[in-house]
Give the backbone structure.
Amino acid sequence: MSNKNQVRIFDTTLRDGEQAPGFSMTSGQKLAMAEALEGLGVDVIEAGFAAASPGDFDAIKKIAEMVKDSTVCSLARCMESDIRASGEAIKPAKSGRIHTFIATSPLHREFKLKMSKDEIVARAIRGIEICREYTDDVEFSAEDAIRTERDYLKRVVEAAIKAGATTINIPDTVGYTTPEEIRDLFHFLTTEIEGADEAIFSAHCHDDLGLAVANSLAAVRGGARQVECALNGIGERAGNCATEEVIMALNTRKDFYGFTTGIKTEGIYAASKLLATITGNPVPRNKAIVGKNAFAHESGIHQHGVLANRETYEIMRPEDVGVSTDNLVLGKHSGRAALKNRAEKLGFELSDNQLQSVFVAFKALADEKKEVFDADIEALILGEAVGAAGPWTIDSLYVSAGSDEARKPVATVKLTHEDGRAVTAVSEAAGPVNAVFMAISEVTGHPLHLDSFSVQSVTEGEDAMAEASVLVSTEFDSFHGRGASTDTVLAGAKAYLDVINRIERRADRERPIAAQH
Ligand code: KIV
Ligand code: ZN
């Protein structure tokens, strides 16, 4: 539980983050992410929007059954059916919260809800009362609070607290506010509202102007004691306040803010990588805290300074966020215990089953490579997380390529589907990778438009692991995919198939109700 100098971290990676285009996750992937978030020590995991679809409901319920150390929360519109679905989904949780919301700004009142001010207050009160039938832990959000008249927002919040809301969330739904404005608003709400002491005030900032983290920190200065955020800053449109950034800002500048969080920051890098792998959206190199360059010192002047005293150019230590700096080498004689130990150093807690499958993959890699580096191990662990999510897997792949103009590259690809099918296709194209992609498209029946394809070596040397990323588009959407192997073409094939698997999994769990925002 938080103390009075602690800011609660409410992570919405699995709700606001997951509802953004290109970031959907299967139930199994959501469970894996929830485990990582619990491991980080977030106070609240917003696990989804129970009424959105049966798939969302099941995922929340499973997370509620599994998670013990964080509160598990489900979002609900201020509607009886939504709230009851959330109440049922969080029932198994050791600590469960319902987060109910209704819009309060003039634009939303007039054009979206077509409701009067009084009707909205009445709906909020009734919604909170129904929430309280399921749990004492009720969060109320006044959607688009930032663009709501102050006197009306005050009225709504006072009514919500009286009705039994224990957390009051003030969302900047459209990412419109500025640090000075939101600080002032939180100061007003936490000092002027009757009953303010009975509730925790929370900030939920979107990043449309690139201010989500700055605004959340300013809200804390104004009186917020909960921050809503998502790993890697994912979320609607430009995303939410980035979990890793707000946590590290509070930690690094504790001298200024005077608050802590309950987060075990050494798990941040692994959790961010896991999310990037699961969703197929790589983290940009220059991303604060978790980007590849975040702790890299390229220029001679910087390197010299850091060698003399790291604080000359480093405000945080890489190991504080779980970025490993010693890069120990493992080889084919290394055992399971050494691998487990290395994985832990990299921020991954592996179950016995996970360790077993990563160990098998590690042995196969160690046979191909003399030395296995941290980045290889990370790619193997994350590969296991992605690889588990079919339905298609690569059974075999052969490619011919060369400089002979008269003979085009040919790929023969055999895939198996979890329903038992095994299908082979042979394709010819101008390049070997294209030939592989075409063969995969033929087998799976997904003709895709390839927007980009890139390969990066994970480590150095001739036998380095390759990590491939593809971006493809369909008529309605675009998808990222990722694959890793010591064979570049196979890495590309895995990345392309990762996209097709995402498309098929999404079709399986089509949402009947779009999450209202
Ligand atoms: O941005 C927003 O207003 C939301 C609410 C549902 C809290 O995500
Ligand atoms: Zn939001």
Q: What stands out?
A: The longest strand covers residues 392-400.
